[in-house]
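Posted in: Structural Biology > Protein-Ligand Complexes

Title: Requesting predicted complex, zinc ion in pocket

I'd be grateful if someone could produce the 3D structure tokens for the following input. Sequence and ligand are given below.
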Amino acid sequence: MKAMIGLEIHVQMTEAGSKLFCDCKANYRGMEPNSNICPVCIGLPGALPVVNKRSVELALAASLAFNCHVPDYIVFTRKHYFYPDLPKNYQISMYERAGGVPICRGGKVRYLDIHSWEWKECRLRRINIEEDPGRTIYGEGGILRSSEAYVDYNRSGVPLLEIITEPDLKSAREARQLVEYVLLVLEYLGATNPRLEGAFRVDANVSVEGGERVEVKNIGSTLDVEKAINFEIMRQSAIISSGGKVERETRHWDAERGSTRPLRQKEQEEDYLYFPDPDLPAIALRDMLPKAKAIASSSDPAALFEKAISLGVQRELAWSMVTARPSLMLYLEAVERGADPQLAARIIAVDYKGELREREKDPHDPANWPSADTIVELSRLMKEGAYTYDAIKGIVLPKLAENPAADLKLLLPQRAENLEQVIEEVLKREERAVKDYLSGKAQALNYLVGAVIRAAGKRALDPRAIREAIERRLAKK
Ligand SMILES: [Zn+2]
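-- Reply #1 --
Done. Output follows.
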């Protein structure tokens, strides 16, 4: 059955430094409950909000990145409702009516479908800047079953981008790809770290032909975006196929059970009693535009992806680098400084990344990557034929992954100047092993390689090169 899907993606601007209207931290992870709070973000009487300009700048950069109509000024609105995690009884948000002016109206996201390698488009309705409420933590059984709830206000007031799409998406997979791409753009802009716990939440509006729109709330990962929407499409299709009616409602995604449950009837928007926040003057955007434009144009993942492709990198490898920003930045810098584009891509996107994976080191942490100088030097050594790719891959990359800041000179296999001479001496001395090898005992070769390494007194010799040298010599006999 044909489906129509629209999303509301709430992304915390975890990298904005402070909360939206006070100096408490935007990233509260690892803090004691209710320790990242102040009179403003717990709504004490008389406390006044002062906007964090960095959040507005980042939101403006996001609006530009998504081709939005940017207004001359923005106006925050109050959205009223009662909930224990909302101490003011209203959330400072944005609205396109009732005097509010959101940071973006219209616009579109061009996102990559990595299954078909096609660029697709999804229109945006608007982007709002708003504050996150506090966190309600339920006892055993979660929101649907527990009779206990605790409130932690560390999150209260964290700047959020609420990105609302038009219902242009046709499948759960498309929806997931869109969310992944939006998060990637926001990460490149320096607005968020989507891998932090709770950094984003998605609500999905799903309808199938002949039925009402159902809102699914509480989707916390991109994998769950796909699962929740697939579940909803199947549930609604089954109702319609059996002659039933899909009612308009709000449902809760239960990730543990892999199903959606009814939550409450959807309020109408008017119920929220929106009006412009009298404590916050309108903010003119003109002065912020140049900086936001610079951020948006220098950190566009699509453009950087195309740049890697134009250097001759396979799209799969290029995309693999795009999805781990430090690796892409390292790659582009290394190539600019003279590294061979193919060799550098193979090292960075395939073998070094594999070493990181094996050690469970995070490829998104720049500290886990070597310097561009190291990549340039490795590329030069291979180009000049000083080392084979296998020697670099087998000997250097594992050590580099252990310690990316290590001095490359100390990691490189030594090329003993007198290697040929050492081999000759060893072959003379190890008559028996040579005889064994010549009579067909393959493992004697391993013994000889070890003997050469010991004789050379240098542990980092390239065993493969030694093996080949020995084979060459003995082949003449
Ligand atoms: Zn605060």
